[in-house]
Amino acid sequence: MPATPRLEIRNLTRRFDGRPVVDDVSLSVMPGQVTCLLGPSGCGKSTTLRMIAGVERQDEGSIWIDGELICDTVVHVPAEQRRTGLMFQDFALFPHLSVAGNVGFGLTGPAPARRDRIGEMLERVDMLRFIDAWPHELSGGEQQRVALARALAPNPRIMLMDEPFSGLDNRLRDDIRDTTLAILRDADAAVLLVTHEPEEAMRMSDDIALMRHGRVVQQGAPYNIYNAPRDKAAVSFFSDINVIRGVVRNALTETPFGQFLAPGVPDGQEVEIVIRPQHLKIDFDRNGSGPLPTAQDGTPARGIVTRARFMGSESLVEFRMDHDGSILKATVPNVFLPSPGKPLWLTIRRDRCFVFPVPA
């Protein structure tokens, strides 16, 4: 028999003033799995998390934990009985409690057992030496580690995390993410992470549910979400994009870069060919003059450099294309800063392009 999901939500809907903020959302999370609700601000991610936590009531749908109904429009198990751990972006430590007091806040049982659990959790997040410190004495990263220890101390079945790393600087954020992920894996809890940062979702999750306007528009493993997006908006959420327009004739679209397949798209339908800047390739063997070169990646097209910027590990070069004056962007590893006005030939990775019909 299939394993029972640790967390399952079915057709969850929440309306504010008659407007659906969360609209018919369904997903499941297995023990030990990290699932990410990814999307822009205001798409319903945090409201979904609040309903699972029990601090917000849904208008429709149901929530199940380990196969047991805990909430629908009639049944409502209180938040404190759901065995869920919560982490938020402001850490929400109690200022009047020490580090030990914060970690032990949700624990029950004999005092010696509580003390042992507090020490165990602080040791796991490398904060045992701060056991008697106060929250205001800690850095942001240290407060985040204490918040993680507090959330995990009661051994929750489900960990709910709402933008927990957004208040940290980039270098510290990566370290804390990796530490948190390792601890969560060991705890075997089902994790639901809310974020608006694609890089964070890709780095931490086993499964991504991409949300837009209150709905899950695509769900799958990070590799599949990134490499098989369902529409242009899904591509652009993960990276910058270039867009080339064309019209379908006999399942083919003619462009300055050659023909592209558009299976299933009717003749006369306008389409957008979407390509990420890293897959727009510069032909370094040409200087923009002379005969058309040949290339394995399709017909080359010529562009004039309008701007080039060094971004650290790569350079971003913008071109005004000869054929229509449109602006396309290419990323090049390392330092490449051609002067504005320089002509260069470009090709594109056919296997990395996405063809989408233009909505009516």
Number of strands: 20
Structural class: alpha+beta
Number of alpha- plus pi-helical segments: 8
Overall body shape? globular
Quote the beta fraction. Answer: 25-35%
* Proper CATH architecture of the largest domain: 3-Layer(aba) Sandwich
Q: What's the arrangement of strands in the largest beta sheet?
A: 6-7-8-3-9-10
Mean pLDDT figure: 90
Report the uncertain regions.
288-296
Distance between the termini: 45 Å
Reading off the top of the CATH hierarchy, the class of the largest domain is best stated as: Alpha Beta
Which value, in Å, is the CA radius of gyration? Answer: 25 Å
What's the CATH H-level superfamily name of the largest domain?
A: P-loop containing nucleotide triphosphate hydrolases
The overall number of domains is 2
Quaternary structure type: single chain
Main β-sheet: number of strands, strand sense, barrel status? 6 strands, mixed
Description:
The radius of gyration is 25 Å and the shape is globular. It has two domains: 7-236, P-loop containing nucleotide triphosphate hydrolases (Rossmann fold); 240-357, Nucleic acid-binding proteins (OB fold (Dihydrolipoamide Acetyltransferase, E2P)). Mean pLDDT is 90; it is low at 288-296. The two termini are 45 Å apart. Strands 6-7-8-3-9-10 form a six-stranded mixed beta sheet, with helices on both faces. Strands 13-12-11-14-20 form a five-stranded antiparallel beta sheet, with no helix packed on it. By secondary structure, the protein is of the alpha+beta class. α3 (111-124) packs across α4 (140-152) and α4 (140-152) packs parallel to α5 (170-187). Helices cover 22% and strands 34% of the residues. The chain contains eight helices and 20 strands.
